[in-house]
From TrEMBL, chain A:
Alphabetical keyword list: 4Fe-4S, Electron transport, Iron, Iron-sulfur, Metal-binding, Repeat, Transport
Chain coiled-coil ranges: none
MF GO annotations: 4 iron, 4 sulfur cluster binding; metal ion binding
Keyword Glycoprotein: no
Keyword Metal-binding: yes
The protein's name in its UniProt record: 4Fe-4S ferredoxin
Residues of the 4Fe-4S ferredoxin-type domain: 10-40, 42-71
Alphabetized InterPro entries for the sequence: 4Fe4S_Fe-S-bd (IPR017896), 4Fe4S_Fe_S_CS (IPR017900), Fe-S_Ferredoxin (IPR050572)
One Pfam family cited in the UniProt record for this chain: Fer4_7
Amino acid sequence: MALTNQRVDVPVIVDESKCLEKCHACIEVCPLDVLVKNPETGKAYMKYDECWFCLPCEKECPTNAITVQIPFLLR
Amino acid sequence: MYDDINDELQPWVEMLQSSAVEDRLVAVKTLQHIGDEDAIAPLIDALKDEDTNVQKIAIAAIWELNNPVAIEPLMACLRSPDAEVREEALSALKELIAPADLMMLLDYIQEDNFYMQLNVLILLRKIHDAQALPYVLPFFESEQEELREAAITTLRYLNQIETCPPALALMNDESPIVRREATLTLGYLQDREVVELLCRALTSDPDWQVRGRAARSLALHKNSIAIPSLAQALSDEHWQVRKFTARTLQEVADESVIPDLIKCLADEYSDIRRDAATALGNIGNPDVLNALQQTLDDPDADVRIFSQKAIDKIRQKQTAIN
């Protein structure tokens, strides 16, 4: 699986100002386990550029910090 | 504070008492994910949290646990000033309530709170019990149109109600939203004046949705008294009204509407051409065969198929007579 180098290019965008450090909701629901916590900031991010666009991470986030950018052809 | 809380739940239940809203959000979300029935008491307490996001997640968590002990605490959320909390609680209660909860709902509906009354009227639709009728009727005269609309809609869901004279008055309500629901409800009532009221709505109500719904309700009554009004509605300015009228004429029609139905075979909207062709086929008069033949080269495939079916039906009928 390819590691993501540019975090702004991945489909799962995390608004770090809203992300809660103690919360792991998105990481737990991701079926591909591609979301992790940044150990320095405690915020979630997409570590591997692999996504099913299934959306539980966006739905489960208690602060609506996650936006999944669905490709136009999948909308 | 709580009995029977296991070690896995303990830290999250404690965190739920935190003064920081971020901590309480994380705690309630985690309790939702754990999904342990033992967490029901702290989750019920979280319904009273000052933060509406915590309340919403607690409602979702309780909903997933599907435990009837949460019904009363969720009912209290129905009077919340936050629309999303009320909506979430209503969705949860729709799945949790059972016919045995009818008396509790009837107690709550008497509370002088607009949101509570509105939501209980919606919940009564899940129970279908005619015992609720005396509690629903006063809302027909409510000053708020939302309550009048909810009450007349609920009436449609109550079993064994065949006549309800107070409902007929709502056909003249000043609000089109109320009249629309009243028109649909009248489709299920058997009062003597119902068909006449629906015919009047079909031909003269200023709101096109009321006229369209009147046509749909008349299809349920299948009363031949409505035929002249239906014939008139075939030339309504709104295509949806013409469409539902043509559909109703598939159920109830006689030869007097043939000229109006033939005009509809040239309607701008293909749904109307299709439904008119089917209605003509159901009447079965061979005089319309020429008109139907001309629709066999209609640009819409649906119209061609249904016209052919109508032609076949008329020919079969002729063959059977001969």
